[in-house]
Every structure is written in structure tokens, then in C-alpha cells.
Amino acid sequence: MKAIVFDKSGTIVDTFRVAYDLKSSDILEGISSTSIVDNMEMGALLILEKSVKEDILPAKDDMDFATFCNENNLCLKCIYSNNFEVLSVDDALVRCNTVPMAAFKKTLKRIFERFGNDIYTNNGIIYDIKEEKPTYVLSTGGHLMPGVERLFTYLCDKGWDIFLATGDTGAGMRKIASSLNVPCRNVFYFQTESKKASSIKQLKEKYDTVVMVGNDSNDLAAFKEADSSILVLQDGLEKNPALFKEASFVVDAITDIMDII
What we know:
Layout: E1 2-7, E2 13-21, E3 27-29, H1 33-38, E4 43-48, H2 53-56, H3 65-71, E5 76-81, H4 89-94, H5 101-115, E6 122-128, E7 133-144, H6 148-157, E8 160-165, H7 170-179, E9 187-188, H8 193-204, E10 209-214, H9 220-225, E11 228-232, H10 241-246, E12 249-251
Parallel strand pairs: 1-8, 1-10, 8-9, 10-11, 11-12
Antiparallel strand pairs: 2-3, 2-7, 4-5, 4-6, 6-7
């Protein structure tokens, strides 16, 4: 038996990220959120537990993010950090009382301009653990990379069981999984770097061969744990050099996997 595990953002989904710099008020498009964290001495990527654009858009511009989360019974989850040991997500949320909801509306506006209002989004912040303050507001949206459906059909025909591992919320991933005929039981949600590696380890207890496919720093531990790994460069963003050292294969496009497997 053989299994192949795909990261979502930047691997099978062409993800567009928009960040609002809370210090300069600049809006940054097409960025890598994990790279921003990697370049911080102590940083973390925190996302809302569910997509709430329907709640964000009606919110008053001057309402702060901490109050918004409390009133809507929402919490943050850490999906990537270079210093999990000293991070308190609850404390981070409290310190988001300086983040205006207007900032989220600005990032979402850029997402909607690119994909339309019906796109599923994820929203959160990048947090400076050392300085104990949020530094960026972040929104993401996207669509499937070209050829993903064809790749998944090919893999199924070859006898591979397909899994998805993502730091994203369950609601958005269920829609993507359904479009690709991947059972919901084969989707791992809210996956940090270490949780992805644990998911690979768990699958290795059942499968003879487990392959990990990813594109970013939060896939590195899973690359190390998998029997083999494939680094995909299709998103065009700069990669952590450690990924190249660890990957068994490097491909320019997701469909190139059909030439390997």
C-alpha cells in the first residue's frame, strides 16, 4: 500500500496572500507568510479557527480584533512559528486590541479584486513573540493549480491513496477535498510543521510507502519523516534552502510528479 500527502497552499492551490503592515500601513501582495516569520527572531503565524469574512465585512472599522474575536466566540490557532516554546496564543489575542478591523477589510478587498467575492478566505495575523505585538494582518485566497485534477486522477489509477495536510480550517478544505474526490477522513487540518511530520509518521504505520509533497518551510519536518519527498516550485516564491537539501525530488510544476511516480 502507498500513500501520498499534499500540502495545500502553494502546492496544489495557487494561493494569493495579502498582508497589511500594521506599522507602515503598507499593503503587501503575493508574499510568503512563513518567510516573514522565518526572518523574525521570534515570530508566529496565527489564523482564525474558521473563515469569517461574512462577520469581518460588517464589523465596524474601528472595532479591535481582540474584541471582534471575543464577541464572535472565535479563537486563533498557531500554524507556524520559529519559537513555539514561548508562544502563548491567548496572550497574543489579547494584544490584538490594537488591530483595527479596517485592516482586514483592506486585505480582503485585494483578495476579492483578484478572485471575486465568493472565494473562500483564511484570515489571521503575524505576531512578533519577542516584542509581544502583532505586526501584520493577513488574508489569503486562491484556486487549484493547473493540472491538479488530472494529477489526482492519475495517482488514483496508479493505486495511490491521496491525503491532504494543511494549516487551514476544515470548512475551506472540505470544499477543496470534495472537488478532488479526496475523502474528508484523508484530510489533516490545522497542521503545524510538527503535526505534519506526525501525520506522516502515523501513515507509515499503515502504508509501505509514504510520499510528502510540499513547497514551504512548514513542510520541512514532513519531508524528513516521509519515505521520499517532492518539492514543488510552481508558486515562484523564494524557498528555504533546507528544503532543497531534504527533498528527494524537485519539480517546477505539480503535474511533473507524473514523471516521477
